[in-house]
Amino acid sequence: MSVKRAIRPEDLFELKAVSDPQISPDGSTIAFVETTMDRDTNRYVSRIRILSASGDGEPKRATSGPGLDYAPRWSPDGSFLAFLSTRSGEPQIWIMPASGGDAELLSDLRDVASAPVWSPDGRSVACIVEVGSDEKDVLVIDRLRYKLDSVGFLVDRNWHVFIVQAQGPGRGEYRQMTFGQDYNFSSPAWSPDGRFLAAAGNRLPARTEIDLINEIWVIPATGGTPRRLTRSTGPADHPLWSPDGRFVAYLGHNQRSGYYSNRGIWIVPVSGGEPMELTAGFRYPVGDYAIKDFLGYGQPAAVPHWSRDGRHLYMSVSAHGAVHLWRFSVSDGRAVPLTRGTYVIYNYSFSSDDGRVAFAVTAPTLPNDIWIGDIRGGRIQERRLTRINQEWLDRTVAVQPVRFTFRSPGGPREEGWIHYPPQIRPTDKVPAVLEIHGGPTVMYGYVFFFEFQLLATNGIAVISSNPRGSMGYGEEFAAAIGGDWGNLDYRDLMSAVDAAVSRGMLDPDRIGVAGGSYGGYMTNWIVTQNHRFKAAVSMRGISNLYSFFGTSDGGYLHVDDFGAPPWQIPQTYLRQSPITYVANVRTPLLLIHSDRDFRVPIEQGEQFYTALKFLGRDVRMLRFLTETHELSREGKPRHRVIRLEQILHWFQRRLNHS
């Protein structure tokens, strides 16, 4: 047996990401997306593969050629596969026979922005299309919400529902179903009889720009005025019709804890009436909140699924670092977990008879794979179908993190994980890095985190935890830091380091700290509050909450969190801003930021860098001129490798590790 080697930054080019498994209506076949990074072109390549649900044979390539192929969707009778592709330029809908053969272009639209959704009779597909004027170099801005990270400027751009004919003499013809510059729509879903579409949409006037309140709308399939089905006080999206067409389920919350509210499942009668929160009183948020740095192209969000008899809804749930499938009773909201274990399910789909579910799984030492589950009563009997990255795993070392628990003074019991270097001995004292997640309303957990594995297999342990503010531990746990960043979360993180060091094998004199987004804010905050850490890396981090309010694409969304806008309570914002205490910094700091980051704009990094350089501190900035806030997950492949190289080298040099 050959000796396995440590992971290298350029290993990103060797890994394959799988996502969006779509099981055929009869449950016999799975179509999924495989994404790789092309070293020569510095681009992503995504292809659709077909796999037998029995597990016999290797996945077969269903698409090829230039461009990105993603979002496969089976026709209701399973005879065709529609998908999105950029092979002709902008994303368009293509269709191919399920039995094999060449794909044909179906749509000729500006920019298809959602997966195709087949009508029940298989004659049409619905989708979301971006409409508006072409890109300009001069913008006239009248709205509060005028930009969005990774999307760009929103001026004269809207997203509307379209229907494209998939069969018959009018094949390829399309109709726009929603209109207006005051509306944006997403997530179209057909009624069982094909007479209506439900979609999520927001209307921008009044305070909806600040609160991002969405509604669920019903749209006649023949055209006409959309009818508002909900009167939301918060987000509402991903509608889904019940099998009898009497109800629409959707995801959302009523902002009872503002920004920190658990997302739940809601049900509203189509005939009219008040929505009911099916998951009221349920402790955990529905959906996948496990943060990752290794994703497939166009990887979709988790959505609910009605059982065929209309008695249950299936949905993923985030709890204690894991994401599993649960079943919720429509009659009483009773929740039953169907899968268990230390892994994360991030995409899934069900056969038409609810007998099978295909899902994509990641675990700490498993980048990702496609699994199949047979539903038997209250459990899913799952089997792993693919070993997509087995050759790479056979050549490299991946470490299993060790879970630990801790409690900060006066706080609840919390959990964290340590990625120890491989073959560590009880008498060893190795350097370590505290990694802090973004959000803050996400969670670390049982995923393959490339950055953690890179550090650990190169001799630097990684400490990660879910401090208060994280999702997956109850709404009260998440809301504990509301309007009070840098207090309870800071205490929790310091207690996590104390607990990890107390277990032995970590050198308390060689500890670093790193984090991105909100984790970057916490990194900036920590180095202004103590000199415990020997090196730090702050990625796309907030330094000044006052200016963040006006420069971020979502800074003003935190106004209710802090109690008022910054000009009314400047001391509240400045008291919680790392820039206020910048003169205290003594820790060598690497700042990583991107010029096209609209979420945490580059000015946040510039302020901290300039102040520290002016003070003569040990600081460096790594600046990516063409990247967004999503650099670590979706940036250009070479940029992602450079970022990882810089992080690894920074800690190796300053934690005195060779």
From TrEMBL:
InterPro entries: 6-blade_b-propeller_TolB-like, AB_hydrolase_fold, Peptidase_S9_cat, WD40. Pfam families: PD40, Peptidase_S9. It comes from the Bacteria. Signal peptide: none annotated. Residues 448-657 form the Peptidase S9 prolyl oligopeptidase catalytic domain. SUPFAM superfamilies: alpha/beta-Hydrolases, DPP6 N-terminal domain-like. One of its GO terms (biological process) is proteolysis. One of its GO terms (molecular function) is serine-type endopeptidase activity. Keywords: Hydrolase, Protease, Serine protease. PANTHER family: DIPEPTIDYL PEPTIDASE FAMILY MEMBER 6, SERINE PEPTIDASE S9 FAMILY MEMBER. This is S9 family peptidase. It comes from Cohnella pontilimi.
